[in-house]
Amino acid sequence: MSTTTAPRRRKAGSGTLIDGVPRPGRVENVVKAIVLTIICALVILPFVGIISTSLAPAEQVNTAGGFVLLPEGIDLTAYASILTGGVVTRALLISAGVTAVGTVLSLTLTAMLGWALSRRQTIGNRQLLLLVLVSLLFNPGIIPSYLVVQQLGMLDSLWAIIVPTSVSAFNVIVVRAFFVGLPQEVMDSARIDGAGEWKLFWYMGLPLARPVLAVVGLFYGVGYWNAFFNAMLYLSDSALWPLQLVLRTYVVDGTQLGAQDLGAEMSLPPQTTIQMAILVISIIPILIVYPFLQRHFAKGMLTGAVKG
C-alpha cells in the first residue's frame, strides 16, 4: 500500500515555502489582482468608448467633445449613413473576399513550403531555407515592390493586395518547425505502406498541423483584413478599395463617402460618430472569428516554436 507525503510548508518572509518553492503571499496576490484589473480596464475602455460613441445621439457627442463612454440613448444614424451610400458595403465585401482568397492562398503556399523545407531530401533545401531566413532581415522596399507589381500587370487589380503578401517568412519557419518535429517512425511506416511524398503531406502532415495552421491562418486573415497600405499604393480606382482604405478616408481625410445619398430625410451625424461606427464594422468580423481559433492559438504557437 503506497502512502503519499504531504508537502512541507514553512513561512519565509511574506510568502510561503512549499517543498522549497516560494509561493506568493496575500499582499502579492492583491497587488497582482489590482495591476491586472488596471491593465484590463485600459484595454477594454477604448473599445467601450468606440461602441458607445458610435451609438450615442448627436447632441451628446457634440456636447462631450467627440468621445462618449456612456451613451444616453441608442442612435443608429451613423450606421445608416455609412451603409446607405453603398461605398462601405462594397468595401466590406471586397475586404471579405480578399481576406478569404488571400488566407486560403497563403495557407496553401506556406504549408507546402514549410513541408518542403522540413524534408531533408528536398533539392536545394538548405539554400531555400537560407533565402527564407534572409527575407526576414531584408525588405525589398516600396519602389522595387511597386515596379515588380507593375511589371506583372497587377496594378488596379485586387491581386496586387494579395500576391505580394501571400507568404510570410515567419509563418513558414513556424510551420516548418512543426513538420520537423513530427515522429520520423510514423513517416517511415507510411512509406513502407507505399505512401509517397504527396500522400504523406496530405493525409499525415496537414491533419496533424491543424493547430499550427489555424494560428497561421489567423495571422494571415487579420493581416489581409487590416491591410490598407498596399491598397493605397497599388489601387487608384476607388471602386476597388477595401474597407480599411475607406476607413482611412473617413478618419484622415474627413470625407463621408456616400453620405450625400441620404437625402433630406436624414440629418448627417457628427464626423466622430461616423468614424467610430466604421471602426466597429471593421472590428466585428475579427471578433467573431477569433473565439473559434483561440483554443488552437497557444497550442499551435508553442508546438511550432519549441519543436525543431
UniProtKB/TrEMBL annotation:
Which segments cross the bilayer? 33-56, 91-116, 128-147, 159-179, 200-225, 274-293
Q: Keywords of this protein's UniProt record, alphabetized?
A: Cell membrane, Membrane, Transmembrane, Transmembrane helix, Transport
InterPro entries assigned to the protein according to its UniProt record, in alphabetical order: MetI-like (IPR000515), MetI-like_sf (IPR035906)
Which GO CC annotations does the UniProt entry carry?
A: plasma membrane
Q: Which GO terms describe its biological process?
A: transmembrane transport
- Domain ABC transmembrane type-1, by residue range, is 92-289
Q: Which family does it belong to?
A: Belongs to the binding-protein-dependent transport system permease family.
PANTHER family according to UniProt: ABC TRANSPORTER PERMEASE PROTEIN MG189-RELATED-RELATED, POLYGALACTURONAN_RHAMNOGALACTURONAN TRANSPORT SYSTEM PERMEASE PROTEIN YTCP
Q: What protein is this chain from?
A: L-arabinose transport system permease protein AraQ
Question: Where does this protein come from, organism-wise?
Answer: Occultella aeris
What gene does the UniProt entry assign to this protein?
A: araQ_10
